[in-house]
Design a protein that fits this description.
By secondary structure, the protein is an alpha/beta fold. The protein folds into 2 domains: 12-206, 3-Layer(aba) Sandwich (Rossmann fold), CATH 3.40.50; 229-447, Ribokinase (UDP-N-acetylmuramoyl-L-alanine:D-glutamate ligase, 3-Layer(aba) Sandwich). It is built from 15 helices and 17 strands. It has helices at residues 12-24, 29-48, 61-75, 91-99, 132-139, 180-183, 238-250, 277-282, 299-311, 320-325, 340-346, 354-365, 400-413, 418-436, 442-447, and strands spanning 53-57, 80-84, 104-106, 116-120, 145-149, 171-175, 193-197, 207-209, 229-233, 255-259, 270-272, 286-291, 315-317, 334-336, 368-371, 377-379, 385-387. The strands form 2 sheets. Strands 8-17-16-15-14-13-12-9-10-11 form a 10-stranded mixed beta sheet, sandwiched between helices. A 7-stranded parallel beta sheet has the order 3-2-1-4-5-6-7, with helices on one face. Strand 2, helix 4 and strand 3 (104-106) form a beta-alpha-beta unit. The longest helix has 20 residues, at 29-48. Bound molecules: ligand NPW, adenosine-5'-diphosphate and potassium ion.
């Protein structure tokens, strides 16, 4: 289920602002609809490959896009039919309907299907779940190829409600920008392959999909310390911290110390007993500290986290270290990596979709949040968000979170912005998992 990299994500309210700005800058809304309809027509033309197309049009501007696409496909010689749920309700949709010279059928039981169905029923204007009879009729088309215009109809584009669409898409053509529903579960997995038609709006880029990762090669001036010196503090399950330290080296740290463990997976990792932890924290060359992997809540964890915070080094906090650190993080640059259960425990009062909760948590704590899962969200206290859907489901195996924490440590230790470091670490993690694929175990990520 691919999705465009580094693409803007806008809510429906932000879409309307962008639309108005476009109109104010001289591009009419009908021109925007013409571009949207042309993009739909192009995609449908390629998907249909000569087979007949049925376009289902709703009453709003999503339906308007459908009428425009029908007109353009007809002009290209495609075998295209249109069926409408209701007469067009907006001026733009009325004009688009009027310019379509073919018949308009009704969406009723027994409507003959076509090999390609274009779903132009509802987009960002959906306000409530679909009526049962419409949902039932749409389910009748489930064995056809489905192209959804903007979002699969029935989906709340903002991802506030997890309404499932009756007709999941093979391809969804997002118009102007991605919407939260394209990158958040449960709706993201109903969108199929997501394509983006830019249509010329100037989209704010505060929220984006995961950028493609550039290779992070050392340059001639690199040495082990300026590539990033990483300290991973082990708890009772030292294997998890060892995975984090090894991942740190793999992800580009020049030097990794595993404190509180006597064994490490690579000879290149300095494994040393816990007594030197305080001295290591004092080392001026130290770029970042990772704490939490394999370290359940305990007094010792509390002391170790407090010492790391007091040292003022950039921190990666995972698992129980998140709860321990929260009340006293004040200003320390940090990346927190909660999975669903850890997030719910630490931020049980936050409401909204996963993007909003991640953002609110980041703002509250003053640190970068990697809210993990299949639809991982990375959020900064200043509101920046990167959505990492679709990731790699092969990561759903024990120890991969420890690897991610180590990768975060490496990116953070090399200096720069903690949000950029978190994005780079998530990108590295997903890329590595995709290279390995079937049968992945967390150890493969550090040996790859
Ligand atoms: N933004 C842009 O830059 C561009 C946007 N464009 C396109 O416009 C789309 C947004 O269009 P839109 O705002 O007209 O809303 P849309 O999704 O067609 O639906 C609204 C209509 O449906 C109705 N309705 C709602 N829920 C319902 C339900 N459950 N069951 C039944 N009815 C329901 C609602 O009426 P209501 O009953 O709520 O009063 C209203 O009549 C966007 O997704 C994109 O495709 C492009 O053309 C160009 C550039
Ligand atoms: N279904 C999935 N699809 C994609 N990524 C997933 C999926 N399930 C888990 N992940 C990723 O795998 C990692 C698991 O981390 P975590 O739950 O902390 O595991 P552990 O504690 O065993 O290391 C996270 O990076 C998470 O985003
Ligand atoms: K749609």
């Amino acid at each position: 289920m691919p999705i465009p990299a580094d693409a803007p994500i806008l809510t429906s309210a932000a879409m309307r602002v962008a639309e108005a700005a476009c109109a104010a800058a001289g591009t009419s809304l009908s021109e925007l609809m013409e571009r949207a309809g042309a993009a739909v027509a192009d995609t449908a033309w390629r998907m249909a490959a000569g087979a007949p197309i049925l376009i289902l049009c709703g009453p709003g501007n999503n339906g308007g896009d459908g009428y425009v696409a029908a007109r353009l496909l007809g002009e290209r010689g495609a075998a295209v039919r249109v069926a409408a749920l209701a007469p067009p309700a907006t001026d733009l949709a009325k004009a688009a309907r009027a310019a379509w010279t073919g018949a308009v059928e009704a969406i009723v039981d027994g409507l003959p299907p076509a090999p390609l169905i274009v779903d132009a029923l509802f987009g960002v204007g959906l306000t409530r779940p679909l009526a049962d009879d419409l949902a039932r009729r749409l389910r009748g088309f489930a064995d056809k190829r489905i192209l959804a215009v903007d979002v699969p109809s029935g989906v709340d584009a903002d991802g506030q409600h997890g309404w499932e669409p009756p007709l999941p898409a093979d391809v969804t053509l997002a118009l102007g920008a991605l919407k939260p529903a394209h990158v958040l579960l449960p709706t993201a997995r109903r969108c199929g392959t997501v394509l983006l038609a830019p249509i010329g709006i100037a989209a704010d880029r505060t929220m984006c999909s995961l950028p493609r990762q550039a290779a992070r090669s050392p340059d001639a001036g690199s040495h082990k310390y300026n590539r990033g010196m990483l300290l991973v503090r082990a708890g009772p399950m030292a294997g998890a911290a060892a995975l984090a330290a090894a991942a740190g080296l793999r992800a580009g740290a020049g030097y990794a110390v595993l404190s509180g463990a006597d064994e490490a997976p690579f000879a290149a990792i300095i494994a040393e007993d816990g007594a030197s932890y305080a001295a290591r924290l004092d080392d001026k060359r130290l770029g970042a500290v990772v704490i939490g992997p394999g370290y359940p809540a305990s007094d010792a964890l509390g002391r170790d986290v407090a010492a790391a915070i007091a040292a003022g080094k950039p921190l990666v906090l995972d698992a129980a270290a998140i709860d321990v650190a929260l009340p006293r993080l004040d200003g320390t640059p940090a990346i927190l990596t909660p999975h669903e259960g850890e997030f719910a425990r630490a931020f049980s009062d936050l409401a909204g979709n996963k993007i909003e909760r991640a953002r609110a948590a980041a703002e509250r704590v003053g640190a970068v949040m990697i809210y993990k899962g299949a639809d991982t969200i990375i959020a900064a206290p200043d509101g920046r968000v990167v959505a990492a859907w679709p990731g790699s489901p092969w990561l759903a195996t024990a120890g991969t979170g420890d690897v991610l924490a180590g990768a975060c440590g490496a990116m953070l230790a090399s200096g720069g912005d903690a949000f950029d470091a978190a994005v780079a670490a998530v990108g590295w993690h997903i890329d590595a998992a995709r290279r390995i694929g079937p049968g992945l175990v967390a150890d493969d990520l550090i040996r790859d």
